Amino acid sequence: MSKEAFSEQDWRRLLASLGEDPDRPGLVETPHRVSKAWKHWTSGYDQDPVELLKAFEDGAEQYNELIVVRGIPVYSHCEHHLAPFFGKATVGYLPNGKIVGLSKLTRLVDCFAKRLQVQERMTIQIANALMEVLEPKAVGVVIKCRHLCMESRGIRTPGEETITSAMLGELQPNLALRTEFLALARES
């Protein structure tokens, strides 16, 4: 599949098709700014989750309790309307000899968020990437987001949050471990 670049001229055409004058002072630079913004918002396609999750050995691989990072910002765009959705993610895992720097979990969320997405798929992509690369005993991901496609059009339900979760490995059969993860993930 050939990748045809969407140019600033295309953004100008979009503005004109909306009934705007792309040459008016407030819009002259808009095609350039929007083009640059979309490159940033979709930069996750250029990132390799495996590269982001390079494990390291520094003695902490003996650690055998849950590692959880919560409050990870999520900024994405839904693939159905290109509308933003945003919120927070909690990502945790029960190591099995391999650990990663805590910032890597934030980068992993950002990698998948900076693609056209649906929240459900993004949740499982994050969990699967952690499971495949770190081979931990368990992985848990909980994401809570507000979707502007629901808030600003259609049903118009401001403030509603969509919550998705993925529980892999020992978090599926082990109710005590699952309960501990969800308690750690819960906002205070």
UniProtKB/TrEMBL annotation:
EC assignment: 3.5.4.16
Query: From what superkingdom does this record's organism come?
Result: Bacteria
Q: Name one GO molecular function term.
A: GTP cyclohydrolase I activity
One Pfam match: GTP_cyclohydroI
Binding-site list for Zn(2+):
C78, H81, C149
Keyword annotations for this protein, in alphabetical order, are: GTP-binding, Hydrolase, Metal-binding, Nucleotide-binding, One-carbon metabolism, Zinc
Q: Which reaction does it catalyse?
A: GTP + H2O = 7,8-dihydroneopterin 3'-triphosphate + formate + H(+)
- Check the record and name the Gene3D superfamilies matching this protein: 1.10.286.10, 3.30.1130.10
Occurrences of domain GTP cyclohydrolase I (ranges) = 8-185
Q: Which PROSITE patterns match?
A: GTP_CYCLOHYDROL_1_1, GTP_CYCLOHYDROL_1_2
Pathway noted in the entry:
Cofactor biosynthesis; 7,8-dihydroneopterin triphosphate biosynthesis; 7,8-dihydroneopterin triphosphate from GTP: step 1/1
SUPFAM superfamilies the UniProt entry points to: Tetrahydrobiopterin biosynthesis enzymes-like
The record's similarity note reads: Belongs to the GTP cyclohydrolase I family.
**What is the protein's quaternary organization?**
Homopolymer.
Question: Which NCBIfam families has this protein been placed in?
Answer: folE, PRK09347.1-2, PRK09347.1-3
| Protein name, UniProt field | GTP cyclohydrolase 1
Q: Which gene encodes it?
A: folE
